[in-house]
Amino acid sequence: MIPVMALAALVFLSLYTLFIQKAMERELNEKILLVSQVHSLAVAEPLWTLNMDGLERSVQTIALHPEITCAEVLESNTLSRYSWPTDCQEVKQTDRLYTTELEFHEQPVGHLNLYYSNKPLIADLIQEVFIGALLFFLLATVAGLVAFGALKLIVGSPLSQLLRSIKSTEQGHSDTLVQWSSNDEMGTVIDAYNRMIEQSDLDTQALVVAREQAELAAETKSQFLANMSHELRTPLNAVIGITEMLREEAEDRQEDTEPHTRVAAAGRHLLGLIDNVLDFSKIEANKVDITPEPIMLQEFLEDVVQTANPLAKKNTNAIELITTNLPSIFQTDPVRLRQILLNLLANACKFTDNGNITVKVEQVEGHDVPVLQFSVTDTGIGINTEKLKSLFDEFAQADSSTTRQYGGTGLGLAISQRLCQLLGGHISVESEVGKGSTFLFKLESATQ
Ligand SMILES: Nc1ncnc2c1ncn2[C@@H]1O[C@H](COP(=O)(O)OP(=O)(O)OP(=O)(O)O)[C@@H](O)[C@H]1O
Ligand SMILES: [Mg+2]
What we know:
With 448 residues, the chain is α+β, with helices and mostly antiparallel strands. The protein has 3 domains: 2-117, Beta-Lactamase (2-Layer Sandwich); 178-287; 291-444, Histidine kinase-like ATPase, C-terminal domain (Heat Shock Protein 90, 2-Layer Sandwich), CATH 3.30.565.10. The protein contains 11 helices and 11 strands. The strands form 3 sheets. A 5-stranded mixed β-sheet has the order 6-8-9-11-10, covered by helices on one side. The chain has a 4-stranded antiparallel β-sheet with strand order 2-1-4-3, with helices on one face. The protein is rod-shaped. The protein binds adenosine-5'-triphosphate and magnesium ion (MG). Adenosine-5'-triphosphate (ATP) binds at residues 276, 347-348, 351, 378, 380-381, 383, 391, 396-398, 402, 408-414, 437.
């Protein structure tokens, strides 16, 4: 925009200069013509009467005009010259010449030569152009200021209101309509903006209602599951307990105890499933509280391994605990950490036969706050690469034959991963089919 305006100003100035120059040239020529006409009689008379003083005075008077650089009179008969200043030689090369024939009583008496220059004219021209440019600049500035003011009034005010409204909407305020009405494009834009804000307010209200309903539904669901789990556990525990009693009585009577053992095992399995579903729905409803507390790490880990030992023995596996460089006290939620480790150990025991399971815990980094790496490695069936991608998804089992062969819901790893994330870690896995798997995660000691 600015270069275009500068170019326009330059073109205007050039045209203006050309126009003024032409006008001045015309004026100069007319003036010289007039001077020669006015003075020719005053010069012709003393020339005829040979009044040299009078002739000199007349020539001097002509030369007083600033444009005339030299005035020269040429007598016809004697060819004598009278000039002012004394000799016109100096200006003859550069200046223009205007010659008038001099007559007295209709008798030619000589010639009047006027040498004139356009230098005073150029000085005037420069002055004129300078004043013209100054005026143009002043006018352009005033016009620019007026246009800017008008633009600010017509566009600036609604735009700044619009901007304020957008900022206010970004900050989450709802009452942010722009109070502006006009029949131009700006009015149309602001009307459309206001309609959009009103629509988005309606949408937000609908979303808030929907979220409240969803939260209520989730709350009701987890409440229902908690109640159901209690209602299911109580009779199930009774079934397991009575079955155990019947089994012992049958054993005493040296009868076949296999049916009792199967009923009790199925009951315990069912209990495990109920626990998993309950845990998962609690996590989904953000109902799991994490309560970090200092734990005696070595004792804690030995106790976890002890708890998992009966599971290991079932498939004739051996569990080994390796600890390196452990801090004596570590701060975390012991209930959740225990649950994660037992889930991983239960899997390792379930998917390994006649093998070894290693629980390894070591301090890996962090001086001010200890960071521990936990890993559970088995020498079991392993997991194929395709399955590894969705291993931590809920209800994800390697294939349907896994369910048939090993049971379970496919929730153990999903629950463990979410719990581990709540403790500030992330479980990852390395596995090779037929060779075994390693599940590992890092935890930082919580600060209270
Ligand atoms: N140590 C492991 N070795 C081989 N496969 C494993 C191992 N751990 C998990 N998997 C595979 O990942 C699947 C998901 O494990 P997850 O613990 O989530 O469920 P699950 O053990 O089948 O059932 P649940 O734990 O709910 O009783 C398993 O079904 C199994 O296919
Ligand atoms: Mg499992």
